[in-house]
Amino acid sequence: MINLFDNFDQGSQDLYQSLIFSGYDNQTVVINDNGFLPKNIISPYAFFAGYYSNQTTKAKSFYQIRVPKFWEIRGNNNYAEIFDGDQKRGKINYFSPLAYHRIVETVEWFDRDGVIRLVDSYNCFGLRFAETVCDKTGKAILKSYFNQFGKEIIVENFQTGDIILSNSEKVEIFKSKTEFLLYFFKKNSLSVDRIFYNSLSTPMLVSYKLQERGEDILFWNERIKDKIPGNMQVILNDSKQRTKKVVFQNYYDYQRFQKEYRRAGLEKVKYLSMLYRYQEKNDAKANALLLTNSDQLEQFEKLVKALPEMHFSVASLTEMSDKLMKFSGFKNVQLYPNIQKNLLNRLFSRSNYYFDINHGNQILSAVRNAFINQQLIMSFTNTCHAPLYVSDDLVYDPNRADLMIRRIKQIISDKNILYKELSQQKNHLVRSTPEDYRRILQ
What is the pTM of this model? Predict the structure, then answer.
């Protein structure tokens, strides 16, 4: 039995932990290796290249990237850039969980027109383990993987789909990533009698191509828009498929599917939420947190003025603009530019509210972290980054900030209302239990 994930992103990590909480500590295979996989998780690229074997070196910091003479690296807590005089010739992307330490995950190299032509990938040992070549439009066309000595082991052609493996025995050529994975399973002696997967791309194709009989399960955490994906319909309509169940992890889509789907296979569809390990209980103090790298905060000045009893901590990984720094003049606002990890962790632990009101990208999965830390999350319809974790009745029209303010005042005045809202926030997910997992996955 194995877990098979395209990437080890937040959704895969949450599913992985949910399965472990429920007693399913399966061998996990991640197809797209970013070089920072946990030691107990394997990938075909790391397996054949052997770059996790007997390594004692450390991850590479941004200032350790080699650049031509007289070129300059300028870094902040979000990323670093490489300059030849005034011309930008590269960008250094940090591995997100280690962004505070400015640990390098990839380096993008630009031509003189500012187009990405080459991407170097670094792993947790500071090794340049992969190189991606791009065409003149910046589209990736070829990716090579190296062993710890810099020898090319795997070449993946994104245009043809071919993968070439050069190991100690001979050169192997695979016509698709699916063929490559099946070869990897055999070489690694993995048991594929049952596969848990969460993507309708390569993992689903692997399940489809396997000749052995099996009892596979698709976990589906993406939103369904206008119609059911074609690959999912294949699973539901074909009784001979290895995939026997489709487990929705978004309750809204599960309910919608139950109401609208009228074809064969409905009995295969189940529901299980992710399982989370919550932090300390909310102590009801009026302390709020915002994490942003933008100075565009929806209705923030109005909230600050109307809620003098609420203390707002505003944190950023970078310097703050003059527009944002002006809020330091309010007694109930504390600004934390260039915040360090330990201090941000303390702010998360002592804050009881989180305001998801910043425009631009979400930083460090802030809304999910607020949810895990049992903070009551408030947002606006035009800034809500992660609606999965936010109660629908706490997401307001930006033109009706007065309604949000009125509700916050009620919550601050009565902690029983706060705890009721927190309970609703959790129940918004329609929570499952480890017993539910064991019952449905048996």
Answer: 0.85
